[in-house]
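[Automated response] Your request has been received and processed.

Submitted sequence:
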Amino acid sequence: MRGNHENVDIEYKRMYVPELRKDIVAFANTGGGKLYIGVNDDGTIIGIGDTDDTMLRLAGSLKDSIAPDIMPFVQIRAVDECGKNVIAVEVASGSAKPYYLKDKGLKPNGVYVRRGSSSQPLSEAGIRDMIVEYYGKSYETVRSLKQNLTFTAFQKELAERHLSFGEAQMRTLNLIGEDGLYTNLALLLSDQCEHTLKIAIFQGTDDVVFRNHQEFTGSLLSQLKEGFAFLDKNIAVKSSIDGLRRKDERDYPMAAVREALLNAIIHRDYGFNGSTIINIYDDRIEFISLGGLVSGLSMDAILMGVSQSRNAGLANVFFRLKLVESYGTGIKRIQALYKGSPKQAVFESATGAFKTTIYNLNEPGISEKMSLYQPNNEKEIILNLAIKQKSITRKDVEIALSIGSTKAYSLLTDLCNKGILIMQKAGNRTCYLPQ
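Generated structure:
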């Protein structure tokens, strides 16, 4: 090999050292190449004493320390060069790029490519570009740069609905890709989710005087629950006296608040690094999510009820958790909740952003109340849901009406007393069936 110099596809190693793994990774991430063990940098052959032991150690190291599995693209054999034993490692360009060192992760110090005659770290931007190139442009399906994920909040939600959580379920939900690694959908549902929800409260009708704010982190499921609880706490109740009775009316339909929050979380473009924003003013609440409309859809189509989810996997998870009733109904439901009000909900789209605005119904000049707010119509919603699902639970009612457990139980009990629903117990689980 004298006279053959190291190149973009040739690497020499005097002896076996674990660090040569980065050269194998670099070859697989680029156009492939050959690595020779027992050869000096200048091509002088040194030879290897025990080739069998060296090949076993090398194969074990590559199998255990590189992900995804690189072994289908690697051939290791002993060759005779000038009467001396040399180990030749031939690496083909991999089909599941980027390959990386497991102990370093999908980071520059774990992902290498060939540049000239050396193996160099790939930048984070380069890693993302390589992932998109080999796995398509769907953010959800792309391999997550973070693989040390935990799912405390997600597991809790599944357990509350008596749903299983394991590798099979995660593959079905596309949290684990074909390469056996976590996808970005898994990252969004994990406790390590990098995106946040920010809620700010302003005095008056502009953003000059700042009252309070909070940022919610963790799994999108945690952000949804904690964000809604914060909104519920900070949305005022107007009290009035009707004869001997006191009437309490919320400033906003909480079902509309819930739908707007769900839409902002489910349909935003998580390829952007910014936060989902909610601004609360005296007269309105604005829900601002990044990404705008999905390409090919117009605002007119959206208002007609057409739905094309940007995050189909995330929408499916929320549907399975019964956090949404069906796909594409959020905007139409908000419109229905504001039917008859002088100020309708407003939906706006701009390049890279989508905004939903709902108005304070207790503000001066907005006195009409929607019939859907009244208790009798809450019972109609419960009955329709029971007929649709064949049976419902108290938790289903809490989610559908955005109410607490006490009120949900009271409504269900009243419907049972009137013979509209039948209560059925199965162990510790109580269901309600339509008559």
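Summary generated for your ticket: The two ends are 87 Å apart (CA to CA). The longest strand covers residues 74-81.
If you did not submit this request, please reply to this message.
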